[in-house]
Amino acid sequence: MSRTDYFHDPAAPPANSVVPSVTAVVTDDVGRLLLIHRTDNNLWALPGGGHDIGESVAESVVREVREETGIEVEVVAVSGLYTDPRHVMAYDDGEVRQQFSICFKARPLGGSLRTSEESKEVRWVDPADLDDLDIHPSMRLRIKHGLEADRVQPYIG
Protein backbone atom coordinates (compact mmCIF):
# COMPACT_ATOMS: atom_id res chain seq x y z
CA MET A 1 0.00 0.00 0.00
CA SER A 2 1.44 3.39 -0.93
CA ARG A 3 1.62 6.30 1.47
CA THR A 4 1.94 10.07 1.14
CA ASP A 5 3.35 12.03 4.05
CA TYR A 6 2.11 15.56 4.72
CA PHE A 7 4.22 17.61 7.09
CA HIS A 8 2.88 21.03 8.07
CA ASP A 9 1.13 21.17 4.69
CA PRO A 10 -2.09 23.23 4.59
CA ALA A 11 -3.30 21.02 1.71
CA ALA A 12 -3.09 17.86 3.84
CA PRO A 13 -6.28 15.87 4.19
CA PRO A 14 -7.78 15.71 7.71
CA ALA A 15 -6.75 12.75 9.84
CA ASN A 16 -9.34 10.01 10.39
CA SER A 17 -7.25 7.67 12.58
CA VAL A 18 -4.45 7.50 15.12
CA VAL A 19 -2.41 4.31 15.44
CA PRO A 20 0.32 3.99 18.07
CA SER A 21 3.61 3.10 16.42
CA VAL A 22 7.24 2.68 17.35
CA THR A 23 10.58 3.48 15.74
CA ALA A 24 14.09 2.54 16.83
CA VAL A 25 17.40 4.36 16.73
CA VAL A 26 19.75 1.38 16.55
CA THR A 27 23.47 2.08 16.52
CA ASP A 28 26.30 -0.41 16.23
CA ASP A 29 29.65 -0.45 18.06
CA VAL A 30 31.19 2.07 15.62
CA GLY A 31 28.24 4.48 15.75
CA ARG A 32 26.56 3.60 12.47
CA LEU A 33 22.78 3.90 12.33
CA LEU A 34 20.45 1.14 11.12
CA LEU A 35 18.15 2.47 8.36
CA ILE A 36 15.67 1.03 5.91
CA HIS A 37 14.65 2.22 2.46
CA ARG A 38 10.87 2.00 2.75
CA THR A 39 8.74 0.42 0.05
CA ASP A 40 5.59 2.45 0.80
CA ASN A 41 6.96 6.00 0.39
CA ASN A 42 10.45 5.40 -1.09
CA LEU A 43 12.14 7.27 1.78
CA TRP A 44 14.90 6.22 4.16
CA ALA A 45 13.73 5.74 7.72
CA LEU A 46 14.33 4.20 11.09
CA PRO A 47 12.86 0.71 11.36
CA GLY A 48 9.50 0.59 13.07
CA GLY A 49 5.79 0.09 12.74
CA GLY A 50 2.48 -0.39 14.50
CA HIS A 51 2.02 -1.48 18.07
CA ASP A 52 0.01 -4.73 18.16
CA ILE A 53 -2.54 -5.84 20.73
CA GLY A 54 -0.97 -8.21 23.24
CA GLU A 55 2.51 -6.66 23.02
CA SER A 56 4.38 -4.23 25.19
CA VAL A 57 5.82 -1.33 23.19
CA ALA A 58 9.32 -2.75 23.80
CA GLU A 59 8.18 -6.04 22.25
CA SER A 60 6.81 -4.08 19.29
CA VAL A 61 10.22 -2.45 18.79
CA VAL A 62 12.05 -5.78 18.87
CA ARG A 63 9.55 -7.40 16.47
CA GLU A 64 9.46 -4.50 13.99
CA VAL A 65 13.25 -4.15 13.82
CA ARG A 66 13.62 -7.92 13.31
CA GLU A 67 10.86 -8.03 10.65
CA GLU A 68 12.18 -5.08 8.66
CA THR A 69 15.94 -5.56 9.01
CA GLY A 70 16.84 -9.05 10.28
CA ILE A 71 18.61 -7.52 13.28
CA GLU A 72 17.78 -8.59 16.86
CA VAL A 73 17.80 -5.68 19.32
CA GLU A 74 17.46 -4.81 22.96
CA VAL A 75 15.59 -1.62 23.90
CA VAL A 76 17.70 0.62 26.16
CA ALA A 77 15.79 3.94 26.40
CA VAL A 78 12.95 6.09 25.15
CA SER A 79 14.26 8.76 22.80
CA GLY A 80 11.07 10.71 22.14
CA LEU A 81 7.31 10.91 21.62
CA TYR A 82 6.18 12.31 18.26
CA THR A 83 2.52 13.34 18.08
CA ASP A 84 2.49 16.40 15.81
CA PRO A 85 -1.13 16.70 14.54
CA ARG A 86 0.17 18.57 11.48
CA HIS A 87 2.02 15.45 10.32
CA VAL A 88 -0.39 13.03 8.66
CA MET A 89 0.11 10.02 6.42
CA ALA A 90 -2.47 9.32 3.70
CA TYR A 91 -2.78 5.72 2.50
CA ASP A 92 -4.33 4.67 -0.79
CA ASP A 93 -7.14 2.86 1.07
CA GLY A 94 -8.50 6.19 2.39
CA GLU A 95 -6.95 6.08 5.85
CA VAL A 96 -5.31 9.36 6.89
CA ARG A 97 -3.31 8.74 10.03
CA GLN A 98 -2.12 11.38 12.49
CA GLN A 99 1.45 10.78 13.61
CA PHE A 100 1.77 9.00 16.96
CA SER A 101 5.18 7.45 17.32
CA ILE A 102 7.31 6.49 20.29
CA CYS A 103 10.97 6.40 19.37
CA PHE A 104 13.38 4.20 21.30
CA LYS A 105 17.11 3.75 21.46
CA ALA A 106 18.17 0.14 20.99
CA ARG A 107 21.36 -1.84 20.66
CA PRO A 108 21.92 -4.71 18.25
CA LEU A 109 22.33 -8.19 19.68
CA GLY A 110 22.81 -10.17 16.48
CA GLY A 111 21.22 -11.19 13.22
CA SER A 112 22.02 -10.41 9.61
CA LEU A 113 20.81 -7.56 7.43
CA ARG A 114 17.94 -8.53 5.15
CA THR A 115 15.03 -6.78 3.46
CA SER A 116 11.30 -7.37 3.91
CA GLU A 117 8.02 -6.39 2.26
CA GLU A 118 8.41 -3.00 3.97
CA SER A 119 12.13 -2.46 3.30
CA LYS A 120 13.68 -2.65 -0.14
CA GLU A 121 17.14 -1.88 1.22
CA VAL A 122 18.64 -2.10 4.71
CA ARG A 123 22.00 -0.72 5.73
CA TRP A 124 24.21 0.59 8.49
CA VAL A 125 24.78 4.29 7.76
CA ASP A 126 27.49 6.55 9.10
CA PRO A 127 25.73 9.63 10.56
CA ALA A 128 28.02 11.81 8.43
CA ASP A 129 26.32 10.32 5.32
CA LEU A 130 22.72 11.04 6.36
CA ASP A 131 22.49 14.18 4.21
CA ASP A 132 22.98 11.99 1.12
CA LEU A 133 19.73 10.10 1.81
CA ASP A 134 16.11 11.12 1.15
CA ILE A 135 14.69 11.19 4.71
CA HIS A 136 11.41 12.78 5.81
CA PRO A 137 11.84 15.85 8.10
CA SER A 138 9.97 14.13 10.96
CA MET A 139 12.26 11.10 10.69
CA ARG A 140 15.32 13.38 10.61
CA LEU A 141 14.11 14.91 13.87
CA ARG A 142 13.83 11.45 15.48
CA ILE A 143 17.29 10.52 14.22
CA LYS A 144 18.75 13.79 15.54
CA HIS A 145 17.24 13.26 18.98
CA GLY A 146 18.20 9.59 19.07
CA LEU A 147 21.83 10.29 18.23
CA GLU A 148 22.28 13.06 20.81
CA ALA A 149 24.48 11.36 23.37
CA ASP A 150 23.91 14.06 26.00
CA ARG A 151 20.08 14.02 25.81
CA VAL A 152 18.82 12.98 29.25
CA GLN A 153 15.09 13.57 28.83
CA PRO A 154 13.15 12.21 25.85
CA TYR A 155 11.74 14.65 23.31
CA ILE A 156 7.98 15.16 23.69
CA GLY A 157 6.17 16.95 20.91
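^ that was protein a. below is b, sequence first then the C-alpha coordinates
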Amino acid sequence: MAVHQPPHRNTGFHLPSLRGNKDTSRKTELAVSEGAGTRTAQAYVFASVRVLMGFVFLWAFLDKTFGFGYATAPGKGWIDGGSPTQGFLGNVAVGPMESTFRAWAGAAWADWLFMLGLLGIGLALTAGVALRMAAFAGTVMMAFMWVAEWPPAKHLSDGTASTSTNPFADYHLVYAAVLIALAVASAGDALGLGRWWARFPVVRDHGWLR
Protein backbone atom coordinates (compact mmCIF):
# COMPACT_ATOMS: atom_id res chain seq x y z
CA MET A 1 0.00 0.00 0.00
CA ALA A 2 1.34 3.39 -0.96
CA VAL A 3 2.00 5.91 1.77
CA HIS A 4 0.97 9.47 0.96
CA GLN A 5 2.17 12.60 2.69
CA PRO A 6 -0.67 14.67 4.16
CA PRO A 7 -1.39 17.79 2.14
CA HIS A 8 0.30 21.00 3.38
CA ARG A 9 -2.13 23.21 5.21
CA ASN A 10 -1.82 27.01 5.27
CA THR A 11 -2.27 28.03 8.87
CA GLY A 12 -2.48 31.72 7.97
CA PHE A 13 0.38 32.56 10.33
CA HIS A 14 3.42 34.39 8.93
CA LEU A 15 6.45 35.77 10.66
CA PRO A 16 6.76 39.51 10.14
CA SER A 17 9.32 40.69 7.66
CA LEU A 18 12.24 42.21 9.48
CA ARG A 19 13.24 44.10 6.36
CA GLY A 20 9.80 45.64 6.09
CA ASN A 21 9.95 46.79 9.71
CA LYS A 22 13.36 48.34 9.19
CA ASP A 23 12.22 50.19 6.09
CA THR A 24 9.15 51.55 7.88
CA SER A 25 11.22 52.58 10.87
CA ARG A 26 13.72 54.33 8.62
CA LYS A 27 10.97 56.21 6.80
CA THR A 28 9.45 57.28 10.11
CA GLU A 29 12.80 58.53 11.36
CA LEU A 30 13.34 60.49 8.15
CA ALA A 31 9.85 62.02 8.35
CA VAL A 32 10.38 63.02 11.99
CA SER A 33 13.80 64.45 11.16
CA GLU A 34 12.47 66.44 8.21
CA GLY A 35 9.56 67.73 10.28
CA ALA A 36 11.88 68.82 13.07
CA GLY A 37 14.18 70.51 10.57
CA THR A 38 11.27 72.38 9.03
CA ARG A 39 10.04 73.57 12.43
CA THR A 40 13.55 74.70 13.37
CA ALA A 41 13.91 76.64 10.12
CA GLN A 42 10.52 78.29 10.66
CA ALA A 43 11.47 79.20 14.23
CA TYR A 44 14.66 80.93 13.08
CA VAL A 45 12.85 82.75 10.27
CA PHE A 46 10.27 84.11 12.72
CA ALA A 47 13.04 84.99 15.17
CA SER A 48 14.91 86.93 12.48
CA VAL A 49 11.78 88.86 11.56
CA ARG A 50 11.19 89.55 15.26
CA VAL A 51 14.65 91.03 15.76
CA LEU A 52 14.30 93.10 12.60
CA MET A 53 10.96 94.50 13.75
CA GLY A 54 12.46 95.20 17.15
CA PHE A 55 15.16 97.30 15.51
CA VAL A 56 12.50 99.29 13.63
CA PHE A 57 10.90 100.39 16.90
CA LEU A 58 14.15 100.80 18.83
CA TRP A 59 15.71 102.89 16.10
CA ALA A 60 12.65 105.14 15.94
CA PHE A 61 13.00 105.68 19.70
CA LEU A 62 16.73 106.39 19.54
CA ASP A 63 16.52 108.72 16.53
CA LYS A 64 13.67 110.73 18.04
CA THR A 65 15.47 110.89 21.37
CA PHE A 66 18.93 111.93 20.20
CA GLY A 67 18.32 113.39 16.74
CA PHE A 68 20.66 111.28 14.63
CA GLY A 69 19.71 113.12 11.46
CA TYR A 70 17.42 110.52 9.89
CA ALA A 71 13.78 111.21 10.72
CA THR A 72 14.86 113.70 13.39
CA ALA A 73 17.32 116.51 12.65
CA PRO A 74 20.35 116.99 14.92
CA GLY A 75 19.51 119.27 17.82
CA LYS A 76 15.79 118.53 17.49
CA GLY A 77 15.76 115.33 19.54
CA TRP A 78 13.67 114.73 22.61
CA ILE A 79 16.76 115.12 24.79
CA ASP A 80 17.28 118.59 23.27
CA GLY A 81 13.78 119.70 24.16
CA GLY A 82 12.11 118.70 20.91
CA SER A 83 8.73 116.98 20.79
CA PRO A 84 8.56 113.49 19.26
CA THR A 85 4.89 113.94 18.36
CA GLN A 86 4.86 117.54 17.16
CA GLY A 87 6.19 116.85 13.68
CA PHE A 88 3.86 113.96 12.89
CA LEU A 89 0.64 114.84 14.69
CA GLY A 90 1.03 118.56 14.07
CA ASN A 91 1.01 117.97 10.31
CA VAL A 92 -2.04 115.69 10.14
CA ALA A 93 -4.14 117.17 7.35
CA VAL A 94 -6.75 114.55 6.58
CA GLY A 95 -9.10 112.06 8.18
CA PRO A 96 -11.82 112.01 10.83
CA MET A 97 -9.40 112.71 13.72
CA GLU A 98 -7.45 115.54 12.11
CA SER A 99 -8.38 118.17 14.71
CA THR A 100 -7.92 115.73 17.60
CA PHE A 101 -4.43 114.71 16.51
CA ARG A 102 -3.42 118.34 16.03
CA ALA A 103 -4.59 119.08 19.57
CA TRP A 104 -2.51 116.20 20.92
CA ALA A 105 0.64 117.26 19.06
CA GLY A 106 3.44 118.29 21.41
CA ALA A 107 1.55 117.41 24.60
CA ALA A 108 3.85 116.00 27.28
CA TRP A 109 1.60 113.00 27.93
CA ALA A 110 1.49 112.18 24.21
CA ASP A 111 5.29 112.44 23.91
CA TRP A 112 5.89 110.16 26.89
CA LEU A 113 3.25 107.63 25.88
CA PHE A 114 4.55 107.46 22.32
CA MET A 115 8.21 107.17 23.29
CA LEU A 116 7.62 104.60 26.03
CA GLY A 117 5.58 102.62 23.53
CA LEU A 118 8.41 102.64 20.99
CA LEU A 119 10.98 101.65 23.63
CA GLY A 120 8.86 98.96 25.27
CA ILE A 121 7.80 97.33 22.01
CA GLY A 122 11.33 97.50 20.64
CA LEU A 123 12.88 95.91 23.73
CA ALA A 124 10.22 93.20 23.95
CA LEU A 125 10.67 92.22 20.31
CA THR A 126 14.45 92.26 20.47
CA ALA A 127 14.57 90.18 23.65
CA GLY A 128 11.72 87.88 22.61
CA VAL A 129 9.62 88.42 25.75
CA ALA A 130 6.09 89.72 26.38
CA LEU A 131 5.30 89.41 22.68
CA ARG A 132 1.55 89.37 23.22
CA MET A 133 1.64 92.69 25.07
CA ALA A 134 3.99 94.08 22.44
CA ALA A 135 1.65 92.93 19.68
CA PHE A 136 -1.34 94.57 21.36
CA ALA A 137 0.45 97.86 22.06
CA GLY A 138 2.03 97.92 18.61
CA THR A 139 -1.27 97.23 16.88
CA VAL A 140 -2.96 100.08 18.76
CA MET A 141 -0.09 102.41 17.85
CA MET A 142 -0.18 101.37 14.19
CA ALA A 143 -3.96 101.83 14.11
CA PHE A 144 -3.66 105.42 15.35
CA MET A 145 -0.92 106.18 12.84
CA TRP A 146 -3.04 104.64 10.05
CA VAL A 147 -5.94 106.91 10.98
CA ALA A 148 -3.58 109.90 11.14
CA GLU A 149 -2.42 109.28 7.57
CA TRP A 150 -5.89 108.11 6.42
CA PRO A 151 -5.00 106.16 3.27
CA PRO A 152 -8.61 106.11 1.91
CA ALA A 153 -8.40 109.83 1.12
CA LYS A 154 -7.19 110.86 -2.34
CA HIS A 155 -6.97 114.50 -1.27
CA LEU A 156 -6.04 116.35 1.90
CA SER A 157 -8.31 118.81 3.64
CA ASP A 158 -6.93 121.68 1.56
CA GLY A 159 -7.65 119.84 -1.70
CA THR A 160 -4.10 118.87 -2.56
CA ALA A 161 -3.26 115.28 -3.51
CA SER A 162 -2.68 113.01 -0.52
CA THR A 163 -0.15 110.81 -2.39
CA SER A 164 -1.88 107.74 -0.93
CA THR A 165 -1.10 104.68 -3.06
CA ASN A 166 -3.62 102.27 -1.53
CA PRO A 167 -7.01 102.96 0.06
CA PHE A 168 -6.51 100.42 2.82
CA ALA A 169 -3.29 98.41 3.04
CA ASP A 170 -0.21 100.40 4.03
CA TYR A 171 2.88 99.61 6.06
CA HIS A 172 1.14 100.33 9.38
CA LEU A 173 -1.26 97.46 8.81
CA VAL A 174 1.58 95.23 7.61
CA TYR A 175 3.55 95.97 10.79
CA ALA A 176 0.49 95.20 12.93
CA ALA A 177 -0.07 91.88 11.14
CA VAL A 178 3.59 90.93 11.60
CA LEU A 179 3.47 91.74 15.32
CA ILE A 180 0.40 89.56 15.79
CA ALA A 181 1.98 86.70 13.81
CA LEU A 182 5.15 86.86 15.92
CA ALA A 183 3.13 86.64 19.13
CA VAL A 184 1.01 83.74 17.87
CA ALA A 185 4.11 81.85 16.70
CA SER A 186 5.93 82.36 20.04
CA ALA A 187 8.79 83.83 18.04
CA GLY A 188 10.80 84.61 21.16
CA ASP A 189 11.67 80.97 21.82
CA ALA A 190 14.45 81.00 19.20
CA LEU A 191 17.24 83.58 19.35
CA GLY A 192 15.49 85.13 22.31
CA LEU A 193 14.54 84.82 25.97
CA GLY A 194 11.04 83.54 25.35
CA ARG A 195 11.47 80.14 27.04
CA TRP A 196 13.17 81.70 30.05
CA TRP A 197 10.41 84.33 30.29
CA ALA A 198 7.67 81.67 30.09
CA ARG A 199 9.05 79.88 33.18
CA PHE A 200 8.13 82.73 35.53
CA PRO A 201 5.08 81.72 37.61
CA VAL A 202 3.25 84.97 36.90
CA VAL A 203 3.72 84.46 33.16
CA ARG A 204 2.54 80.84 33.37
CA ASP A 205 -0.56 81.94 35.26
CA HIS A 206 -1.38 84.83 32.94
CA GLY A 207 -1.11 83.87 29.29
CA TRP A 208 -1.42 87.46 28.07
CA LEU A 209 2.05 88.12 29.52
CA ARG A 210 3.55 85.45 27.28
